[in-house]
Amino acid sequence: PKEVLIPRKDILKGLENKEFLVTIIESRTCELSRAKRILYRHYGERWKVTGINHCTGMICAAGALLTYLYDTQKHELAQIRDINIYSTGHFMMLDAVTRRNLEITESIIDGGRQGTLFSVLDHSCTAMGARMLRGWLEQPLMDLTEINRRLDGVEALNKNIFLRESLRKLLVPVYDLERLGGRVAAGAANPKDMVCLRQSLALIPQIK
Question: What is the pLDDT of residues 1-54, one digit of tens each?
């Protein structure tokens, strides 16, 4: 189930039938002064140049999330190095109803993947590629320069069959580096994870 942080119990209304694991956090966790302290603890003075220092809401949200992670992970979060501001202005806004009706990633019949646009387009060799493609479909670009840059990449691989096929062969044995990296940074990786990480990293020079 997905997990949602809820600062106030009244927001739970309407979520009763959803598959969410809801965590109630204390309202003081979202206080501005407390958020600034936790951000300073984690980033030092660097947090002030991340761009969120001009928005009280961003500061409180970032502070609350870091507090939650410290409380649940029980160790330093060295893997969280930066704060990036997410702007919806770069993407076409598609609400849940629109996504469902267009069947972009979920079928309108049973909520599954079969018969969706994603199922037709997804021939990814890796979990990372599938996640990236899903993100592209759910957040269509609005910037013409970025759209053309992406299309140029698609065209280059579409025209060069030998390059595309050789690249696919190299990608097939690559494990999920994003999740493996997260496990390593969190100190939760086991020997099998490390072997998978080594094998995948060894292929990067050829892929590049």
Answer: 445 555 555 555 555 555 667 777 788 888 888 888 888 888 888 777 777 878
Q: Could you give the C-alpha distances from 128 to 14, 91, 125, 134, 176, in angstroms and in order?
A: 33, 20, 9, 10, 6
Burial of 115 (0-12, 13-18, 19+ CB in 10 A): middle
Query: What is d(CA 44, CA 98) in angstroms, rounded to the nearest whole number?
Result: 42
CA distances from 22 to 5, 68, 170 (A): 6, 13, 41
**pLDDT exceeds cutoff 90 at 100:** no
4, β-bridge pairs? 22
CA distances from 123 to 51, 119, 138, 197 (A): 37, 8, 17, 23
Q: How confident is the model at residue 188 (pLDDT cuts 50, 70, 90)?
A: confident
pTM: 0.71
